[in-house]
């Protein structure tokens, strides 16, 4: 990419640069550059395009709905919004039976946190120490993985919990394994010591994505819910990346049998288009309404993205993409573990369904894992595979792998083969 291509653009990804190619179009599991190169997209755009790019049914919905009804005054309702609220709440357990629709994950988390503060009458928020919940005010102040330095004081009352990372355990049991129960107890001991008695909510991802694709241990979510409810707090689950079939079930929280007080969705709900949601119980919604809940935005409950959301639900249900994600996830994870047996720099493979983490290690030579991850990413791009590394210092060797749920077995195998070739090239030449 030459300087003219970025001359007029503000850079917005911290110290990172734009990707080197200009993308001209996308279809299925691939994006295509202006010079005609194909890149197999193992990030589903921004972890969002679960139905692949330019899915014909999404394209048809956008064309038809744009011609009929695209945008309204925010106090008006349309049939796509009414239908999506009914259908979406039918996919989740009771008592999550109320929904509102926004545009981005940050916006849905902002609304959820605002609602939790209003309903509880409190202001303190807990999230993980490697969290990412968005770049708007409350969401950004509940984000600890990046973006905190240089912007002035954060909102008072934000606390961080240690991440239960089994590959990098900070507290271990007699067997050397992560002792997450003791870690959680100590985390809340510290929070209780700092709290001014105004704990409102805890917001977490069931699988931390930007935090290194860390799957919460079985039992952790239930224990966290209990800690919250003992203190009169609400539990908010951010399923921007894990919701709607990506992990092999409709929602990641289903594995643990834990129903949150508030659920936020985005990314996958619009399958790449800007659509997000907040779901909660009728009781919480009524309390919020009685206290004057205000989250009036230009595009709240817009008909065009809601129509897309309905089509997404159609395809997910009809094609049983929850099962498909589980099957393809087994193929992907199995292939990555085979590569781990051939490449000593692979330290760990983890995740669920088609949200998989691959962590490289520095090895016995003590090399720079961030540089290693960057080199493998670059080589993958050269060979025709777009991969994403976690943009945290010291974690640049952790790949977030999230192909579309509509990918084929052949595309999964092709991605694995390219990654194998890239690892071989980089480790032989470093």
UniProtKB/TrEMBL annotation:
CDD domains, sorted: OAT_like
Gene3D superfamilies for this protein: Aspartate Aminotransferase, domain 1, Type I PLP-dependent aspartate aminotransferase-like (Major domain)
Keyword Lipid metabolism: no
Listed InterPro entries: Aminotrans_3, Aminotrans_3_PPA_site, PyrdxlP-dep_Trfase, PyrdxlP-dep_Trfase_major, PyrdxlP-dep_Trfase_small
Domain of life (superkingdom): Bacteria
Annotated Pfam families: Aminotran_3
Gene Ontology MF term list: pyridoxal phosphate binding; transaminase activity
Entry keyword set: Pyridoxal phosphate, Pyruvate
Keyword Ribosomal protein: no
Family the UniProt entry places it in: Belongs to the class-III pyridoxal-phosphate-dependent aminotransferase family.
Protein name in UniProt: 2,2-dialkylglycine decarboxylase (Pyruvate)
